[in-house]
Amino acid sequence: MKLYCLSGHPTLPCNVLKFKSTTIMLDCGLDMTSTLNFLPLPLVQSPRLSNLPGWSLKDGNAFLDKELKECSGHVFVDSVPEFCLPETELIDLSTVDVILISNYHCMMALPYITEHTGFTGTVYATEPTVQIGRLLMEELVNFIERVPKAQSASLWKNKDIQRLLPSPLKDAVEVSTWRRCYTMQEVNSALSKIQLVGYSQKIELFGAVQVTPLSSGYALGSSNWIIQSHYEKVSYVSGSSLLTTHPQPMDQASLKNSDVLVLTGLTQIPTANPDGMVGEFCSNLALTVRNGGNVLVPCYPSGVIYDLLECLYQYIDSAGLSNIPFYFISPVANSSLEFSQIFAEWLCHNKQTKVYLPEPPFPHAELIQTNKLKHYPSLHGDFSSDFRQPCVVFTGHPSLRFGDVVHFMELWGKSSLNTVIFTEPDFSYLEALAPYQPLAMKCIYCPIDTRLNFIQVSKLLKEVQPLHVVCPEQYTQPPPAQSHRMDLMIDCQPPAMSYRRAEVLALPFKRRYEKIEIMPELADSLVPMEIKPGISLATVSAVLHTKDNKHVLQPPPRPTQPTGGKKRKRASDDIPDCKVLKPLLSGSIPVEQFVQALEKHGFSDIKVEDTAKGHIVLLQEAETLIQIEEDSTHIICDNDEMLRVRLRDLVLKFLQKF
Amino acid sequence: MPEIRVTPLGAGQDVGRSCILVSIGGKNVMLDCGMHMGFNDDRRFPDFSYITRNGRLTDFLDCVIISHFHLDHCGALPYFSEMVGYDGPIYMTHPTQAICPILLEDYRKIAVDKKGEANFFTSQMIKDCMKKVVAVHLHQTVQVDDELEIKAYYAGHVLGAAMFQIKVGSESVVYTGDYNMTPDRHLGAAWIDKCRPNLLITESTYATTIRDSKRCRERDFLKKVHEAVERGGKVLIPVFALGRAQELCILLETFWERMNLKAPIYFSTGLTEKANHYYKLFITWTNQKIRKTFVQRNMFEFKHIKAFDRAFADNPGPMVVFATPGMLHAGQSLQIFRKWAGNEKNMVIMPGYCVQGTVGHKILSGQRKLEMEGRQVLEVKMQVEYMSFSAHADAKGIMQLVGQAEPESVLLVHGEAKKMEFLKQKIEQEFRVSCYMPANGETVTLPTSPSIPVGISLGLLKREMAQGLLPDAKKPRLLHGTLIMKDSNFRLVSSEQALKELGLAEHQLRFTCRVHLHDPRKEQETAVRVYSHLKSVLKEHCVQHLPDGSVTVESILIQAAAHSEDPGTKVLLVSWTYQDEELGSHLTSLLKKGLPQAAS
């Protein structure tokens, strides 16, 4: 069993597991941090961005100044932003049988895999994962396609040139594999390959392996996966949460008894407490608005935003913010808000109970009804006429490189009254802000990452007790910025096996057994005998049929009498070569009793001699010699078949057959 | 001999009071717990004393499964769990769990408040009963205990309706509940995979009907409603609050919009608003078209359909009213019916099946003079129309489902005996499987012969698979091994491994036979002759002549030696182990016949 690691990003994993005869891709994460190296894509032409100076080498050579621009000491690529794809060369991706998706953030690379690698298999995901995943992709495509950029920079990617660039461009990995965003057509084609599954649904793959999604508690429809055969079990844990937010709680019990547990998608901010961050978010928001400033919240169109809106719903009136407009701007804002209300079965118990009343599970329905929250597909159109300040705007993209957020950064960046609050943990906020420097607006960093932290992980591992843990290398050492924090890493016994991008791990697995079915007719013919108390044995001679990776034992065909002394070649392939094997023997022969038995059967003139290892029984009349030792019996006689068979059967009476 | 036993307590050769007991692999499961609309006495609930006379139901039943929220499938549930007493798990889908208590409360109100029945279950009992419910997702495998698992499949019929697979080891039963094999305006079609159950228990409401295309029925319905409204008549459509009601509302709503009609459409109050809310929140259970477009337009927000007030019934002019309940056996629909029945301009459209004993059933069977409470006689002059809109599978649909699931046998419930008979024959003919149709209280016993799963050591499996020159995986092969049974753990291993595991040593049994040959030549030459003889005779075996002069056939050793007394005789020592018994014995008899005279 092998694990091919195609992504180096611990929370956006992409691994391929070879297990029995199947090739299973676990998640399809797309590393979007690469976009931080690019200039933002403004919705309306920004004089500031277009007037940034081109970058030149120390010796004054300015041949890159069309591709690279400088802003406050940082260098950015002036081009359509590109994403860092999972490794495509490590394994032939057309051999992948299935792709298992754990949550909507971990499927963003799907179109690259399903549309461009010869992939012909099936993708499995839950319904909320697919619906919200589609929204995230739609938003991404929309953000990038609506501001067509003529320029596509490629010179800087040349290895010899990249060496000369300043950090972080110099250190960017695999730049030659970076790709532009896919199209909506590719998204639709990719999504059409998905088969919907429900939690605890058992899905058979080729009769060899069974996969099952389990609730992971992190997002609507988010799942961990069990990949198992009858005797081996691999758990794939990706993006799980033990906090009570809106999704169904995590199913931990089903992860027990795993041979291998692959652990990815832990919190990216292990030192921040999500509850505390939400509190800080609310108070900073209120403070800014009270002072007449605007609040910008760069966010994804689904996920934590539901929880933030719920907090604000409870907070607005008590904080005296009833008159402040809240805007949610995204091409998929409406869909996201609507979809969140129809997944009752995937929600936590509290929210389910509300649906039974029947009431919408999320209070943002009421915020919309009372006009406190308004949503728009973009800042063009209705929004521009409704727009009132001060206000709170939720919009994407959290990287600050594309989407409506770029416009608000340009619009509000110059005033210190305004605040931008970062809640999404996927991008370093300092790097996200770099192309907007110098900034007057306040920047608050309240990352809300509900995924497992290291304390929860160690508790989880103690509880589910996997034999082996496999995780990204980042989790086996403290974060680089906090190298003294030995508590910020996975601590388990035996130590976790770690992987990095483009590595192949041989998993410590020894398959010993396989399931086989004994047909009832055969079972009836078996003769069990008790060997030790509680342990019975039966010898089995049967015909093995193997079909669709399933094995069945049927009774052996009755031996057919050879007709005419000649063996005919059988026409049918169904009847195997029927050579009935004799069983193995075990036990020992007590000489005295054996001699008595011989006498009883009419043998006379029996002589017994002792030897170093046993005895020799001589039947002088029959010129026969029987050597008896602890573990062997040797009958030496003339060619008298009758006699030999009589002696054989006498010996067999003392032995057990296997 | 293991067996599966099925006993209907209700819905055996009947429609209503669905309740079927299934025993499988030592587990007892009750499928549905319904009431009968045709009775008002003891017969309205299943006879639970059948299950166990003295013991507690909880000890006897491993679980209860409810297929959907219709009262003939869940109406007896609070009586069963709270009054008779059952504390085990009750499984149903999320929408069923949400809607079921509302219909039960409605039923209770009519029974107690309107009819004044005593000794009926209370609101609190409904609540307590619902606490025992465990909600299941579609396709989720629910482990009831270590051995019993159940799985729900989409059934169409009404919001949240499900078919259930009940499985113990390799034995399984599928219960369809009520289902619909054709998608309609708001629900999708039932679907099941080729799960090959030992038994398929299917409803058979429309066992003999093959319905014309749905489009025709809809057109017919709209035409009739339109004509009645045009001539100024009032149209009454008795429905159950959830289910067909939404289907017909969508139908009328779009028709009104297209034709720009002005006559008011009302929906009897109470459940409507709420019901539509459920449809909005559980939109994932509706059909694909509604699910796809719900963000732009939610089909369950009606523009033309308004809430009904009792006073409206006397308003002049045409109108269309949806009123509950659907079989005209009580409540508002019956009240309106009484008011309008006398006018031939008016019309009542029965969109679904009516159980015997209900007013609906009477007027559909042509009765025009009805005896009402207090010996009043009501003369029915209004037009009575029947349109099959109930979302049950018709004969074609039932056959289709049997084909999909490929069961070993079929059992019919939820239908009329005469019609079942016809369908039973058809199923037996077409699928060559046995088909049963037990009456209530009658038990069907099916012997099963489950195969036994054991673990086979990979070493043994691979060794057997590697045998033979062509590693053709499809060809059956002979396998020899030892089955070790320890508690309930069964493992099949090679005999060598079995010995080793049990700490036993192998006992080797060897035979050496002396075969006397008349041959004056030297031993070596005798050996060569033996070799060439055996080589020519035993073509299928590996015969070798070893450098030390001995001959082997497979693992059997033959040595030639001089006779101590007679130089003209040589002794062949043939030696083999017990495992080669057959070949060894064969060889000695072969050699006994002597060697052919050398051709040279």
TrEMBL record, chain A:
Region (Disordered): 548-573
Domain Beta-Casp span(s) in chain numbering: 305-433
Coiled-coil regions listed in the entry: none
Keyword list, A-Z: Cytoplasm, Nucleus
InterPro entries associated with the record: Beta_Casp, Integrator_9su, IntS9-like_C, Metallo-B-lactamas, RibonucZ/Hydroxyglut_hydro
One term under GO cellular component: integrator complex
Highest taxon above the source species: Eukaryota
UniProt keyword Cytoplasm, yes or no: yes
A GO biological-process term: snRNA 3'-end processing
Record-linked Pfam families: Beta-Casp (PF10996), IntS9_C (PF21382), Lactamase_B_6 (PF16661)
Homology family: Belongs to the metallo-beta-lactamase superfamily. RNA-metabolizing metallo-beta-lactamase-like family. INTS9 subfamily.
Function: Component of the integrator complex, a multiprotein complex that terminates RNA polymerase II (Pol II) transcription in the promoter-proximal region of genes.
SUBUNIT field: Component of the Integrator complex, composed of core subunits INTS1, INTS2, INTS3, INTS4, INTS5, INTS6, INTS7, INTS8, INTS9/RC74, INTS10, INTS11/CPSF3L, INTS12, INTS13, INTS14 and INTS15. The core complex associates with protein phosphatase 2A subunits PPP2CA and PPP2R1A, to form the Integrator-PP2A (INTAC) complex. INTS9 is part of the RNA endonuclease subcomplex, composed of INTS4, INTS9, INTS11 and inositol hexakisphosphate (InsP6). Interacts with WDR73; interaction is required for the assembly of the RNA endonuclease subcomplex in the cytoplasm.
Family annotation (PANTHER family): INTEGRATOR COMPLEX SUBUNIT 9
Official protein name in the record: Integrator complex subunit 9
Organism name: Lynx pardinus (Iberian lynx)
From TrEMBL, chain B:
An annotated GO cellular component: integrator complex
SMART domains reported in the protein's UniProt record: Beta-Casp, Lactamase_B
Keywords of the record: Cytoplasm, Hydrolase, Metal-binding, Nucleus, Zinc
GO MF annotations in UniProt: hydrolase activity; metal ion binding; RNA endonuclease activity
GO biological process: RNA polymerase II transcription initiation surveillance; snRNA processing
Residue ranges occupied by any Beta-Casp domain in the UniProt entry: 245-363
Compartments, as annotated in UniProt: Cytoplasm; Nucleus
Domain annotation Metallo-beta-lactamase: ranges: 16-210
Keyword Zinc: yes
Cofactor(s) this protein requires: Zn(2+)
Top-level taxon of the source organism: Eukaryota
InterPro entries: Beta_Casp, INTS11-like_MBL-fold, IntS11_C, MBL, Metallo-B-lactamas, RibonucZ/Hydroxyglut_hydro, RMMBL
Record has Translocase as a keyword: no
Chief location bin: cytoplasm
The family this protein is said to belong to: Belongs to the metallo-beta-lactamase superfamily. RNA-metabolizing metallo-beta-lactamase-like family. INTS11 subfamily.
Subunit structure: Component of the Integrator complex, composed of core subunits INTS1, INTS2, INTS3, INTS4, INTS5, INTS6, INTS7, INTS8, INTS9/RC74, INTS10, INTS11/CPSF3L, INTS12, INTS13, INTS14 and INTS15. The core complex associates with protein phosphatase 2A subunits PPP2CA and PPP2R1A, to form the Integrator-PP2A (INTAC) complex. INTS11 is part of the RNA endonuclease subcomplex, composed of INTS4, INTS9, INTS11 and inositol hexakisphosphate (InsP6). Interacts with WDR73; interaction is required for the assembly of the RNA endonuclease subcomplex in the cytoplasm.
Protein name, as recorded: Integrator complex subunit 11
